[in-house]
Amino acid sequence: MKVISINVSLPRLANVHGREFETGFFKVPVSGPVAVNWLNLEGDGQADLSVHGGPDKAVYLYSSEHIEYWKRALRRDDIGPGSFGENLTVEGHAENEVAIGDEMAIGTARFVVTQPRLPCFKLALALETPSIGKPFLETGRTGFYLRVRQEGIIQAGDEVHPLPSRETERVTIAEFLKLYREKRARRDQIRRLLSLAALPEDWKNRLRGKTEARS
User: Fold this and answer.
1) Can you tell me the distance from the alpha carbon of 98 to that of 92, in angstroms, rounded to the nearest whole number?
2) 20 to 30 A from 100, CA-CA: which of 29, 147, 148, 171?
3) What percent of the chain has pLDDT over 70?
């Protein structure tokens, strides 16, 4: 498994069908070494820091196989690395294989998986596909965010090396999404998710809310 492309973009104003908004969604592939910082990659940034960016969403990873899937499903030849706003386009790394808390080494940097990516309106606008949000989530092809465990240097072509997880529970991204969307998830299932040290606090608050709503 290796990095196919590294994609970055600083926030800029975009206009799609008359709707103007500031975004760092439109990532473009870059060549050569790229520095990995605690909050993002060199040359990358987010516009709305209330919902994007931060240490728990420092880097967004998406599978090249998913991109090929969407090219066929949407009948689009213009979709490629960076089209889904991802920083790293990689081989493999399916959501039913990667778990929250999994760690990986790329180049001299180290990362830990924190959470799935949930679609927002910018995905639909960027792809000019208003209906993309629901199938993006339902197919499970969401990709996931990484926290930087160790700063370093990466570049396209680098191998992705798995490292031992520090979690006592193993919950894949696919399983996490299924349980989160499950209206009748059991308390023991929710507690299992809450036990994940790598899971960000805002996700834990959402899950606690689900438990309280059923009390």
Assistant:
1) 10
2) 29
3) 98
Q: Which token pair is 155? A: 């570049």
Q: Give the model confidence (pLDDT) of 63-120 as tens digits.
A: 999 999 999 999 999 999 999 999 999 998 899 999 999 999 999 999 999 999 998 8
Beta bridge partners of 153: 35
Gap between the Cα atoms of 37 and 59, Å rounded: 10
Q: What is the pTM of this model?
A: 0.94
Q: What is the pLDDT of residues 11-35, one digit of tens each?
A: 988 887 777 888 889 999 999 999 9
Give 123's contacts (C-beta < 8 A, 6+ positions apart).
Answer: 25, 84, 85, 132, 133, 136
Closest-CA residue to 47 (of 112, 136, 121, 110): 121
Is the Cβ–Cβ distance between 90 and 1 less than 8 Å? yes
Domains of the chain as residue ranges with CATH: 3-167 (2.40.33.20)
Classify 109 as helix, strand or coil.
strand
Asked if 83 contacts 76 with a C-beta cutoff of 8 angstroms, the reply is no
What is the C-alpha to C-alpha distance for residues 190 and 51, in angstroms, rounded to an integer? 23
**How does the average pLDDT of the chain come out, rounded?**
92
Give the Cβ contact number of residue 181 at 10 Å.
10
What is the average pLDDT across 174-190? 88
Residues of 142-175 as b/e, b for ≥16 C-beta within 10 angstroms? bbbbbbbbeebebebebebeeeebebeeebbbbb
